[in-house]
Write a structure and sequence with these properties.
Order of helices and strands: HHHHH
Number of helices: 5
Distance between the termini: 26 Å
Largest sheet: none
Length: 139
């Protein structure tokens, strides 16, 4: 399903209650996922044992990237989806494309931090545009 198909399911083109609920649900989902990612990164930065730090937090970050990738793809948010996919790959111990192994967990965590910063900027841009589309006074 694409965003255009979601828009077609609205009963009223002015109110757009159906698509608005999906988009605003995505906003909540994205913001909650960002908080979980930041928490995992924080734990990864401050735990002293690299064995403890490594795989568990990276695996969770990979799962969170995968989770948000799907919903952003559904809405056609390509830049957001692409960054989520990179986080998924880095968390899985792979490079940006997901094809080559990256054995250095610290390097993967550093790349996730960098990508999350870009992701949040891209998300803020698209959130603002979607809020304008829905005539939201918070835009």
């Amino acid at each position: 399903m694409t965003f255009e198909q979601i828009l077609e399911m609205d009963d009223d083109e002015e109110e757009r209650e159906f698509s608005r609920s999906i988009v605003y649900g995505f906003f909540e989902q994205a913001e909650g996922t960002f908080k979980k990612m930041e928490s995992s990164i924080f734990l990864g930065d401050f735990l002293t044992s690299s064995q403890t730090r490594g795989k568990r937090d990276l695996t969770q970050l990979s799962q969170l990237g995968h989770f948000l990738k799907g919903s952003s793809a559904t809405l056609g948010l390509t830049k957001v989806k692409d960054s989520c996919e990179k986080i998924q790959h880095y968390g899985a111990g792979k490079d940006e494309s997901g094809t080559n192994d990256e054995p250095d967990d610290d390097k993967s965590l550093r790349r996730i931090k960098e990508t999350l910063a870009v992701l949040k900027v891209d998300y803020a841009e698209v959130e603002k545009k979607l809020r304008v589309f829905y005539h939201d006074s918070n835009a």
